[in-house]
Write a structure and sequence with these properties.
Radius of gyration: 18 Å
Structural class: alpha+beta
Oligomer: single chain
Low-confidence stretches: none
Strand order of the largest sheet: 6-4-5-8-7
Protein name: Bacteriophage T5 Orf172 DNA-binding domain-containing protein
Organism: Methylobacterium radiodurans
Mean pLDDT: 85
Order of helices and strands: HEEHEHEEHEHEEH
Number of domains: 2
């Protein structure tokens, strides 16, 4: 649950507390709230997980809306439509953006010594690509490369 919802469970003297925690980079850029207490009690097993999950999703949506507004104010949320592509190579996936997928794949072929497979692509903007990166930041290996997991595979499949 922590991976995509920014949920943290913290042990306290009086029991356990569930918090939604804003990513540090976004908090440093000015997003508020930074931390929201979602639940507290004696035992994590007694927590209403569905209510906690719903509140996390609402806070995540607020964060994504804030990111979109911030990017468009900075001129980075280009409205120019392109293609967000997903390329798998071994146990990694590259999430990238291009205006010409064919040309990008030709360049990719010469830059990658091992084999690769295009596992999906969707229409979107450069901002949409950054939102994919933010969504799966816990899987980031380096740059635009992410660990390939069942969760990432399912998200790509449902989007493509």
């Amino acid at each position: 649950m922590r991976e995509t919802l920014n949920l943290e469970w913290r042990q306290r003297k009086a029991g356990v507390v569930a918090y939604w925690v804003c990513p540090r980079a976004k908090a440093a850029q000015g997003f508020t709230p930074r931390t929201v207490q979602l639940w507290s009690g004696l035992d994590k097993a007694s927590a209403d997980l569905e209510t906690i999950r719903t509140r996390c999703l609402v806070l995540q949506a607020e964060l994504l809306d804030w990111m979109k507004r911030r990017e468009s104010r900075r001129g980075l949320g280009s409205k120019r439509l392109g293609i967000i592509y997903f390329i798998r190579s071994a146990d990694l996936v590259k999430i990238g953006f291009t205006n010409n997928l064919k040309r990008r794949l030709e360049a990719f072929t010469t830059a990658t010594p091992q084999g690769y497979e295009v596992i999906g692509h969707v229409s979107g903007t450069a901002l949409d690509e950054r939102l994919w990166h933010a969504r799966f930041k816990k899987l980031r290996v380096r740059g635009e490369w992410f660990r390939y997991t069942d969760g990432l595979a399912a998200a790509i499949q449902s989007a493509a």
